[in-house]
């Protein structure tokens, strides 16, 4: 701003001349206009004006507006009959007049602008911008000064005219803007706007420009945007001029520019470089708005840029997406996500592509390790976890953990975990939960390579990731229960805390009912410890010691996944302990029956028949057979059957282990299990030797393991039928009447958290409930059911 602009344009603190001690003059317009016009010309010529001169001009306007001399001026806009009503309470009853002065000010501004525009007629491009912005800056400042010493006219006469409904009367500053718009702006608008667009294009092409020229034009266009009725009451512009004359052509020009540039760039560069270019261009456009355009244009401009640069080329983005996934280009994937996310629904296709890609990767990973994974749960589960970890990190880093991409990861993992090469090879959809339960057993069982507690906790958390995707959670529950029972009974758990932690995780995931039996197992173990202490004290009190280390576990039949064992005649060495405890327990608990699980029982036998003394860790069946050799050193198999009552199919497996350990021998060296017959001789090998003095010969019976697995699967199917029937009854009790399809869908929905019911099984369960008279088919609608209370 030039140094001669020493006056403030704010005059709110200037008092009326009459109240500041100056003599009030009755001034007609003709008497004051020449001096007033000269002052106004000086203002618009940017001449220096001191405060005294400013006050003289202010007084001219004030004295004229408050003049009571009827000859002074004729106010044609106010009817004569209303003159008495326009007398103010000030100025000794003077009328407020001003229409003639207002017209002269308007004429002055029109004449001034007509002359001014002639000086820039031949200017184009940057020169016309310099001319336009400089003249606008000067004109705006001068008009504010003019508005200042016409403030009395604004506050009284203009206000009265507005209140009377004369919407074509403005405060003097707004009058100046309207006049500029009608004369100067309309004449130069096309040239100025075109020059602005050329300047912006030069900048987009990398040339340095004077951005102040553009911001000056934008500020002018905004200031000219009076509302459509051109009301004087609103001080806020409507941006109409700015939008019509600058924003709209600017957006159109932007579309043309980037349409051309994007096509040319893509012809010469890969999509990865194009994405970097788009990022750069969008940042440039944001900066452009901040530097020299109105902030209201930001969303419109960016939407147009995104449409031209991204939306029109989405197919290219989608085609490149899988290549980037294959190459592990996470940075480029993140860039693609950020760009495509700007387009409504643009990410949907990326989510679909990601889901398919992860599914394919998971299927291929399991296919590679299928043969090993069939019998190695560690390989199977860790293969799944590697795939999940890789793409979970990708979703986190490249896709900002977007819910839609997390869902795509979850869907893909759910599909390949529940249906893959391993499940197809075993023809069992329940293979995944079974292998996961076995993997848990490996983690939680004592071994020579037991991990630290923190590592074990982390491994269990990883298990829960896979568990989340398992559809048949009831299958996992059954197998986990089976392996947990073995660990507790055989006392092979690596850590009670780890066992409790895992159960807590399962409870958090599936609820109390899911883990109730598992928790009851732990309760039984604790109760058994107390029971053994009580039994030990009982034996001491009656002074009948057992003379052996005897420990018993009493398990609730409804909570433990064990089935009745084969019969066994206990040797006399064990019979006394067996009978003593049975009597003790019966005396403590009337009505309870003990069923002994010999196949899960074990003990230790100390040898005195060999050169060295050995301690053998053996199953109850093995102990019963070995103790027979205290009587003599050779038996026939049929003799052992008669004396122990062990079934032949079980006995041959027990004898096969004892033959293999070389404790027992037969006529045939290296006798196989299939070769053992009733008349096969069995002898104690008196020359037995072993480097170890403590030897574990306890091996599980294969037939029992097979039967357990078959029983487990059978129990799963039976439990599922009961769960389906219970769900149907719950639904029908609430709905009363329901169509077949709706009932099927609701059953599937209710049970999906536990397992995925097969529709034929649901239909079969419906028929069972109809037979049991819980439901009936409607007579007129055979596809609908009614609940029978």
From TrEMBL:
The keyword Cell division does not apply. Residues 431-659 form the Cullin family profile domain. PROSITE patterns: CULLIN_1, CULLIN_2. GO terms for biological process: apoptotic process; protein K48-linked ubiquitination; SCF-dependent proteasomal ubiquitin-dependent protein catabolic process. The keyword Ubl conjugation applies. Pathway: Protein modification; protein ubiquitination. It comes from the Eukaryota. Gene3D superfamilies: Cullin Repeats (1.20.1310.10), Ring Box Chain A, domain 5 (4.10.1030.10), Winged helix-like DNA-binding domain superfamily/Winged helix DNA-binding domain (1.10.10.10). Keywords: Isopeptide bond, Methylation, Ubl conjugation, Ubl conjugation pathway. InterPro entries: Cullin, Cullin-like_AB, Cullin_CS, Cullin_homology, Cullin_homology_sf, Cullin_N, Cullin_neddylation_domain, Cullin_repeat-like_dom_sf. GO terms for cellular component: nucleus; SCF ubiquitin ligase complex. GO terms for molecular function: ubiquitin protein ligase binding. It holds the Pfam family Cullin_Nedd8. Residues 1-23 are annotated as: Disordered. Belongs to the cullin family. This is Cullin-1. The lineage of its organism: Eukaryota, Metazoa, Spiralia, Gnathifera, Rotifera.
